[in-house]
Design brief:
about 750 residues, alpha+beta, 6-stranded antiparallel sheet
């Protein structure tokens, strides 16, 4: 009997092994693994991503989304909602920044159109909703009507199947241009044109989004309604296409431009006169092309989470340029209101995205990163500053001078047509000036920082310690650009010294970073658990690790490898203690840390997201491997609650993408990645030059690296370089269930500025 049971057990194990192997597949379509609804189950109090289904092309100028929220509500789509108010053109990067240039359309049936957004809203169900990155389809239950939409970069095609119970004269398409001074007029029997001026800031005088709606059947009736909105005139129209020969389904086209109505008509050619199915197929092909740059082989569920994150990584910064009648690249400048030549991108906050999103683009999509870098130079020329948070122009949000990281990373990698002298001037200007009206642009408190090495706690500048730490890292980034540009030795020395300013905030009496007064004394009273005040959406336990460029220097300050790793360990072993007195209530970022059962580790917000990889620098890479896998396994999924906090313009997604590959850019602008642990059996990175880099793992169900080979030779270092990846090749990891000594030798550690200077 024992032998029979043993045989049965062996057969079960073999079946399980075969099942596991069978579940690792290479799909025919990567894009259809994407769930655009991931992260949409969010509220003001608790974010599971704070996303909305972005129906778009990669980096598309215009995006579309089903609208469940009220006009002007940053939470424009909520998974918990039961009614749709319209299908909305959107440019919203986050609910906190909100939207601009938006308008919506809603097919409906009835004897007369309903304009009130509450009364016109239709019940819908996720069971009768199909969302893809390239198309959206939904059944409007109150109208027994099906709507399909597929976008291009600046336009979209709609296909509507009205209820067969509704007579032709009862079929309407309501166009809502929103308030704030909107306009709609009929141009001809087939076309209406409008202007949306609605925005949330960051625009010059005269800002407008010009839109065109062109129908394939003649307009029989047009009902107009105008209201007085809080921001100005609110224009709405309802179009009836009734007629004996009206087709079913009904097709119409929409496009918009930030330049002019004439440019909107040019943009309309991106979709007209093609069918919904044709535009949908084109969009699917474009998404497939971009997503397949990273080809993964694994189980469908893990692949779905991965490609949903990669999709989110390819939405922002969005293209804010258009192609004129001569085929030239031009853009409306949200900085000075002029129409100018060249690229421009917007809708991103570099405080978030300098960490992983922009390095991911620079590695996997360098041709897009090159255009983004040229767009940053245009923003500088048009406003005098690089943007820190742009939507569409400068917005007052977050801290730091992290545009320096982004543009330096592009420059040292050779991306974009960038004049070294102009870049040097732009970087130095941004580091030594404050924007006249936008506190987050330039460097608030730079005079104090340049004199003292930090922004003091007693000069009325909030989040002073966070600013100081980020300025020091940004100075190191500027140094990298100065070195490549061949700047003077004195200038390089100045920024090399400023890059070490982080040391001035380290308080050895408590072992953590702390604000300082003008007289040099440390800020008091002070608590390492206090969110805000000295720090930005975090506390000292989170921000003390913000020494991206000199981890070895931080290790030395904290007392060496063992003391450093004990502090890293403590972030996970501490209970989720917090002090919310600066805010006066528990902000959602605090709550998200509290409920994740990972101590004081707050992965739902950006400042600490690189921290896990710092074990590599202290000789304990196995702890990096363990915690990377735990975060991926526990805090990410392909469900509507699939994030553990704000997704933030692709940053939290890009963390997952990099970590799944097996490495992470702890120090952007360096061209080096700290190794974690690969998550998939095989990943193929396809570079635009035709080369590829393949990453293989023996058993991705266990986290610990037993050994590694780079191009067939043993690899003991806990990092890999940008140029190595770009040249193509392969890296193979043998993984196991127990930690080993792999990567623990002192020579295996990634770059640190202190060590590099010696």
């Amino acid at each position: 009997m024992k032998s029979l049971r043993l045989l049965s057990l062996c057969l079960l194990l073999l079946a399980g092994s075969l099942s596991l192997q069978a579940s690792s597949t290479s799909p025919t379509s990567y894009v259809d693994l994407v769930n655009p609804l991931v992260g949409t189950q969010s509220t003001f109090d608790l974010s599971s991503g704070n996303t909305y289904p972005v129906i778009s092309r990669p980096w598309g100028m215009n995006s579309w989304t089903p609208q469940t929220g009220k006009m002007g509500d940053g939470w424009q789509y909520s998974y918990q909602a039961t009614k749709l108010r319209g299908l909305k053109q959107t440019h919203q990067p986050s609910p906190w920044i909100n939207d601009y240039g938006q308008f919506s359309l809603l097919p409906m049936t009835g004897k007369a159109p309903v304009f009130n957004e509450e009364k016109r809203a239709s019940w819908f169900s996720h069971k009768a909703e199909e969302a893809h990155p390239y198309s959206y389809e939904v059944y409007l239950a109150d109208y027994d009507t099906r709507v399909r939409m597929a976008p291009s970069e600046r336009a979209a095609v709609f296909e509507v199947e009205f209820s067969r119970m509704a007579r032709p004269e009862e079929r309407w398409i309501v166009v809502d241009a929103f308030d704030s001074g909107s306009e709609i007029q009929q141009l001809d029997r087939y076309t209406i044109a409008g202007i949306s001026r609605k925005n949330s800031g960051g625009v010059p005088k005269g800002f407008a989004n010009y839109f065109i709606v062109r129908f394939t059947e003649p307009i029989q009736r047009l009902v107009r309604e105008e209201r007085k909105g809080k921001g100005g005139r609110h224009a709405l129209v309802a179009v009836n296409l009734a007629g004996e020969k009206v087709s079913s389904p009904t097709t119409f086209y929409v496009a918009s431009s930030f330049i002019s109505r004439e440019q909107a008509e040019l943009n309309l050619k991106e979709v007209a006169p093609r069918s919904y199915q044709q535009v949908r197929a084109e969009g699917k092909a474009e998404w497939e092309k971009q997503l397949s740059r990273i080809a993964v082989t694994d189980s469908p569920d893990r692949m779905s989470t991965f490609y949903s994150c990669l999709y989110r990584s390819l939405l922002f910064p969005r293209r804010f340029y258009e192609i004129n009648g001569k085929g030239e690249v031009v853009h409306y400048s949200p900085y000075n209101g002029q129409v100018l030549p060249g690229y421009l991108y917007t809708d991103t906050g570099y405080w978030d995205t300098f960490r992983a999103l922009m390095p991911l683009i620079h590695l996997v999509y360098p041709e897009e990163g090159a255009k983004m870098a040229e767009g940053m130079m245009n923003a500088y020329r048009e406003s005098g500053f690089f943007p820190e948070w742009a939507s569409p122009g400068h917005r007052d949000c977050m801290v730091g001078n992290n545009s320096a990281s982004v543009i330096a990373d592009a420059f040292v990698k050779g991306l974009g047509r960038i004049d070294p002298n102009e870049l040097t001037t732009a970087l130095l200007h941004g580091a030594n000036n404050e924007h006249p009206s936008i506190r987050s642009t330039g460097r608030l408190g730079y005079k104090y920082y340049n004199k003292l090495g930090y922004v003091p706690s007693d000069v009325g500048i909030n989040e002073h310690a966070a600013r100081s730490l980020e300025y020091a890292y940004d100075d190191w980034c500027i140094l990298q650009a100065l070195q490549k540009a061949g700047a003077s030795a004195d200038l390089q020395q100045l920024y090399a010294e400023r890059a070490m300013n982080y040391r001035k905030l380290y308080d050895p009496s408590i072992g953590w970073m702390r604000g300082r007064r003008q007289d040099g004394s440390f800020q008091a009273p002070f608590s390492v658990y206090k969110w805000g005040d000295a720090f930005t959406e975090g506390n000292s336990l989170h921000y003390s690790w913000s020494v991206f460029h000199d981890v070895q220097g931080l290790i030395d300050l904290m007392g060496g490898d063992k003391a450093f790793t004990r502090k890293l360990d403590s972030i996970f072993t501490l209970p989720p203690i917090f002090d919310d007195s600066y805010y006066g209530f528990v902000i959602h970022e605090i709550r998200e840390m509290q409920i994740m059962d990972m101590g004081n580790y707050a992965h739902g917000n950006q400042p600490i997201q690189h921290m896990i990889y710092l074990y590599d620098y202290a000789g304990e890479p196995s702890k990096t491997q363990y915690w990377v896998r735990e975060v991926m396994r526990r805090l990410y999924s392909n469900r509507p609650d699939g994030y553990c906090g704000d997704e933030d313009n692709g940053q939290t997604s890009a963390w997952y993408v990099f970590s799944a590959l097996g490495f992470y850019p702890v120090t952007p602008a360096l061209g080096q990645y700290a190794i974690g642990t690969p998550y998939f059996r095989e990943v193929r990175l396809s570079m635009p030059e035709g080369k590829s880099f393949v990453i293989r793992a023996s058993d991705p169900n266990v986290p610990y690296i037993q050994s590694a080979q780079l191009n067939g030779k043993p690899w003991e270092k806990t990092y890999i370089d940008y140029e190595t990846l770009r040249r193509g090749g392969s890296m193979t990891f043998t993984l196991g269930a127990k930690a080993t000594s792999w990567g623990t030798h002192a020579s295996a550690r990634p770059y640190s500025f202190s060590r590099a200077k010696k």
